[in-house]
Specification:
The complex is a heterodimer of chains A (267) and B (254).
Chain A (H helix, E strand, L loop, with lengths): L7 H37 L5 H4 L2 H13 L2 H33 L1 H16 L6 H8 L3 H25 L3 H9 L4 H12 L1 H26 L4 H10 L3 H32 L1
Chain B lengths: L3 E14 L2 E14 L3 E5 L6 H8 L7 E6 L9 E4 L11 H5 L1 H5 L5 H13 L15 H13 L5 E5 L7 H17 L3 E5 L3 H7 L2 E5 L6 E6 L11 H4 L3 H15 L1
Parallel strand pairs in B: 3-7, 3-8, 5-6, 6-7
Antiparallel strand pairs in B: 1-2, 1-4, 8-9
Classes of the chains: A mainly alpha (267), B alpha/beta (254).
């Protein structure tokens, strides 16, 4: 704002803006509360069978008891570690692979059909194979997490690399730069926003892969809890695990969005 | 005594793709003297930019050749200004103008001082830490010029560097940049499709034919300038004659 005193209309505008956001926040919270209350009510009055559908109070009890015996922290810790490790590996591997493809047009043309096939393959089909190869345990689950996210990540990152303005690359040539300069001075910095938005997708997909892996090959983790809960008809445990998964997915997403905001402010 | 700095002889070049080849230049010959400001005009798509790419060594001639007569027989340094400024938004203005030095590993304290001096001379020193988006179109174009001049080229290739600017900015910035280039005693080759820009900035104009391009006419420009405003050349008594002459040469082509 250039003038010292903020004008009446500007104040009004800002107030309107704040009001709008407050409304959205409240509506979101109200929606959640309505859902929980309706759920609890239906369960308490027998409209739905609380054995199958559980209820917020039962979920809360289950949560508290799992916190008490500390088993919950173990399961959350395992799932979180696996997800974060496979997410980091996906980010690293996709960056390396996309760089390699960018450096060699021939290689990218040769590999293109294979990448497309691997990307569209339902990765859950690989999980049983991974168990045979790697056994049951954390490495299998991390590989499952990577397999879900990595191919799409390579393709979208590489596509982003190719969309860099050709005249910017020409500029590097006119300044006497080599291919390495094209990559490190233009392509990579220009693609940081794409890399970050890619990471948001990857963290979700890594979580999907990890849960698939835990369904099939784990003795610990939220995926295991979900499968175990369904097998012993502990629906409270199952639904608690799902809700915790929701929270984890949201927190991971928010962390990366935070990084994105920080980056945008920095530039 | 002015001497030739570069000579283009019998230069031909074609672009190839699967549906056939497109001849861009055919037996093109011209020379440029040291310190001269040459403008090249021609119908659109006649291969003007190809000439600059060949001169800059970004493309290799298929036939004919380009000879440079630099100091001690060495190839003179060549600076290239593109149509748009291409300042990188992820770098500050300072980091942008020193990009060429950075790439060529010439970021010495001495060179940095020269760049600082240029920023000061061209009124950009207050903006060194700013991002390109915070600058006006004219300032951005000046920053792009500093980036080019930082490598101390003897020859400047200008590929319609003003075409992305609005008309008013364009007049002042082009006059500004021409003055900077002249005062630095650089040799310049300007590509443009704007006849009045060519007349007001250059010493000599090369008119190219349609594709494949060859030199159709050469016009030396001498203007009696009433003052040194950006509009001065357009007010010179000779301006209209030159304009009409060039217009006719070009109209034959279309």
């Amino acid at each position: 704002m250039s003038n010292e005193k903020t004008s009446e209309t500007q104040l009004e505008y800002m107030q309107k803006h704040r009001r709008h956001h407050r409304l959205i926040r409240r509506a979101r919270l109200a929606l959640l509360l309505c859902f929980l209350i309706l759920w609890e009510f239906c369960a308490d009055y027998g409209i739905i069978d609380s054995f199958f559908f559980s209820s917020p109070s039962r979920v809360a009890d289950c949560f508290v008891s799992m916190v008490r015996d500390r088993s919950l922290f173990l399961h959350i810790g395992v799932t979180l570690t696996e997800t974060v490790v496979s997410f980091l590996l996906v980010t690293l591997l996709s960056l390396l692979a996309a760089t390699l493809l960018w450096y060699s047009k021939k290689l990218s043309e040769i590999l293109e059909p294979y990448l497309v096939v691997l990307n569209s393959l339902p990765k859950s089909a690989l999980a049983p194979l991974l168990i045979v190869w790697l056994g049951t345990g954390i490495p299998t689950i991390i590989v499952a997490g990577i397999s879900v996210a990595v191919f799409g990540a390579v393709i979208s990152l590489y596509t982003g690399f190719l969309q860099v303005d050709a005249e910017k690359l020409l500029l590097i040539d006119t300044l006497g730069g080599r291919k390495r300069d094209r990559f490190f001075k233009v392509v990579l910095p220009a693609c940081v926003p794409i890399l970050l938005s890619n990471m948001k997708v990857n963290v979700g997909l890594a979580l999907v892969g990890v849960i698939i892996g835990e369904f099939l090959a784990a003795r610990r983790g939220l995926g295991y809890l979900i499968i175990y809960g369904s097998q012993v008809f502990q629906l409270n445990m199952l639904i608690t695990s799902i809700l915790i998964l929701c929270a984890i997915a949201m927190i991971l997403y928010q962390i990366i969005q935070g990084i994105e905001h920080w980056y945008r402010k920095k530039r | 005594m002015t001497t030739d700095l570069l000579k283009v002889e019998d230069l031909s070049f074609s672009y190839h793709n699967l549906s056939g080849e497109t001849a861009a230049l055919s037996h093109l010959s011209f020379s440029v003297k040291k310190g001269e400001f040459l403008a090249i005009v021609g119908p659109s798509g006649c291969g003007k930019s190809t000439i600059l790419s060949l001169l800059a060594g970004l493309l290799t001639p298929e036939e004919g050749g380009i000879t440079f007569y630099g100091k001690n027989g060495r190839k003179p340094g060549i600076g290239y200004m593109l149509q748009r400024d291409q300042l990188f938004e992820w770098r500050s203005i300072w980091k942008n103008v020193t990009l060429g030095l950075e790439i060529q590993h010439k970021l010495t304290p001495e060179n940095k001082k020269k760049v600082e001096k240029m920023l000061e001379d061209y009124g950009l020193s207050d903006f060194a830490k700013k991002r390109p988006s915070e600058l006006s179109g004219g300032m951005r174009q000046r920053a792009a010029l500093i980036r080019t001049l930082a490598l101390e080229p003897e020859i400047l290739l200008l590929d319609e560097p003003f075409s992305a600017l609005d008309y008013q900015t364009r007049l002042t910035v082009s006059a500004d940049i021409a003055r900077i280039i002249r005062s630095a005693e650089k040799t310049a080759i300007l590509i443009t499709h704007d006849l009045s820009e060519a007349i007001s900035l250059s010493d000599r104009i090369l008119v190219l034919s349609g594709r494949p391009a060859h030199v159709k006419a050469q016009v030396s420009i001498r203007l009696t300038l009433p003052d040194d405003s950006p509009l001065a050349a357009r007010k010179a008594p000779e301006y209209t004659d030159y304009f009409n002459h060039l217009w006719e040469e070009l109209s034959d082509e279309q």
